[in-house]
Model the fold of this input.
Amino acid sequence: MSEKKGTFYITTPIYYPSARLHIGHAYCTVMADTVARYKRAQGYDVMFLTGTDEHGQKIEETARAQGVTPKEYVDDIVKGIRKLWDLMNISNDKFIRTTDDYHKKAIQIIFRRLFDRGDIYKGMYEGWYCTPCESFWTKSQLKDGKCPDCGREVALQQEEAYFFRLSKYADRLMELLDGDTGFLEPASRRHEMINNFLKPGLEDLCVSRTSFTWGIPVEFDPGHVVYVWVDALSNYITAQGAFSQDDSDFQKYWPADIHLVGKEIVRFHTIVWPAMLMALELPLPQKVLGHGWLTSNGQKMSKSMGNVIDPEFLCDRYGVDAIRYFLLREITFGQDGDFNGKSLVSRINSDLANDLGNLVSRTAAMVQKYFGGALPVERESGEVDGDLIELANGTKAKVEAALEQLNFSVALSELFRLCSRANKYIDETMPWVLARDQAQKPRLATVMYNLCECIRIIGILITPFMPSAGGQIKNIFDEKNGSPDIFEWDSAAVFGTLPKDMGIGKPKILFPRLDIDKELEALAAAMPAGDAVPPEKPKPQPKPQIEYDDFAKLELVAARVLECEKIKKSKKLLRLIVDDGRERRQIVSGIAQWYTPEQMIGKSVIIAANLKPVKLCGVESNGMILCSESDPDTVKVIFHGAEPGAVIR
Done:
C-alpha cells in the first residue's frame, strides 16, 4: 500500500446552473478529477469539491419566465449536472449547492462578522451591470460599451448596497501576487491581475443587492440579499463546515492546496477571495491555477455563440475515457485549446486504438496463444531488453513531475512514449518467429513478461487520467496469482514486479478504430451551428527541397519570455526579452495583433537563435519566435513545456 502522506484539498469553481452544459464545462472538472485520483493513488487523504452556484438575478428572471420558483428551476438543472459528473467518472468527495441550508447559515455569519469588523459598510451603488456574468463594471472597464468578459449589453443600475472594503487590502494583495509566493499560476495571469486591477487601484466591492430577492438574506437587514461573490466564493470553506457547529473537516483540509479556475474568474479568486479571507483572519489557499478556455474554431464555447457540443453525445459515442484523454492530451494547461472533431478522431485512432489498445490486445493474445494464458517461469534475456526496461522504470517519475505542474499533456506524452516503445519492442523481437523454435521458448517467455510488465505499469499510471481503461488493463491480470500491491501506485517504479507465473486473461478491444469521414459527419450534425469541423482550406504550395546541411545550419532552442512590451511606433510588433538558457536576448516579433504582452510573459517559446541581428522600427532583434500560420489572419505562437536552452531537433 502507498504510504499515507497527509491531506490534499482541490476545488473547481461551483458552476452556474445552465440548461445545457457543454464539453467546455467538463474540461476543468476532468482536470481536477485527474489530480484528485493521482493524489489518492500517492497516499494522500484527498478532498475534492465541486458544486453549483444557484443564486442571482438571472436565475430569478429565468424561473419567473418559465412559471416556476427559482428553487424548482435550479433543482431540475442540478440533477443534470450531477448526472454529467457521474457519466464522466468524476470522483468528487463533496458537492455543494449554495441553496444548502448549512451554506446559507454560514454565509450570514460571515457577512455579519465582516460587518462587525468594519470591512462591510452600507452605501449607494451606481454602475454598469451585466446580468449573465453577475458583475458590476465601471464605465472605463467596459469594452465598446459592453461587458468586458462576455461582450453582452450592460445596464446602468443604482441601488442601496453594502460594500466590502476591498481597497483596504490592496497592499497585501500586491505583496501576495507580486512576490515570490507561487500563489497564482501561470505567470501571465499574475501579470494580468497586477497590471489590470491592482496597479490602476482597487475600488470597494458591492456585496449586496436589493433589486431582486433570490439570494441569501442579510440577516440584520432583510431588504438586502448577499451578492454572488461573497456567497459563491465562500463555498470552499462552508462545504467543510466553517462557521458551523462541526468544523472538523475545515480544520482538517483548509487551506485548499489548489483552486482550479477558468481564466475569466481568476480576478475573483486571487483578489476578492484572498481579501475576504484576510478580513476574516483565515489562511489563504496555497495556489490558484487559472486554465484557458476550450474553444471551437477559435471562439470560446457558449450557447449564445451556437458553437457548443453536448458531452453526453461525445461520451456515448466515443466512451468517457476517450473524451477525458482528448481534453487532457490535446490542450496545454494555461492556454486555450480548440475542440476539433478531426483531432479528436485522430487521437482516438492513433494513440488509443493503435498504440495503447493494440499493445494490450496483441500481448494478451500472444500469451494466450503461446503459453496458454500463464507466464512461464523460465526466462532468457536479450540485447534489446535494457532500453525498454530503462524507459519503463523511469516513466513514473516523469509522469509525476508533469502532473505536479498540472502539465497533463506532457504527462500523457511520457506515458505514451512507453506504449510506443513497447510496440516497437514487439517488432524488434518478433515473438511469432521465436514461437516457431522450441529452443527459443525461454526467450519468448522473457519478451512476453517484459511486455506484460510494461502494460502493468501503463495500467497503473493511466488510471488517474482514464479510470475505466486503467481498470480494464488491470483486469487482464489474474490477481489470484499475485499480491494486490503489484497494482499500487508506487509499484509502477519497479520493473519486474509481476509474479513469474501470472495468469493473463483473454484480450478485449479497449478502443476500436473509427471511420474518420463517418465520425466527422456525426460531429458536424451534433453541433448546433453545424460546424464541428472547419471547412478545408487551400493547402499551401510546398517550397523547393533543401539539403539536410542547409537545415542543420539553423539553431532552434527553447526560451522563456521574461519581459514583453508593445513597440510604440508599430501596431504589429512586440519587444520581448527571453532567457535561452545561455543568456538574455531581445527579440522583436510581429505578433501584437494576436497576443498582448501579458499573454506572453512567462510563456515557453521556440526561437531561431542564430539569425543575424536586424532592426525593426529602430529596435534590434536577435532571433525569431516560431509561430504557426493556418491563414494570414490566424497566427499562433508555438508554446511548449521544455526548459530554456533545450535544443529543438
Summary: Residues 15 and 469 are 28 Å apart (CA to CA).
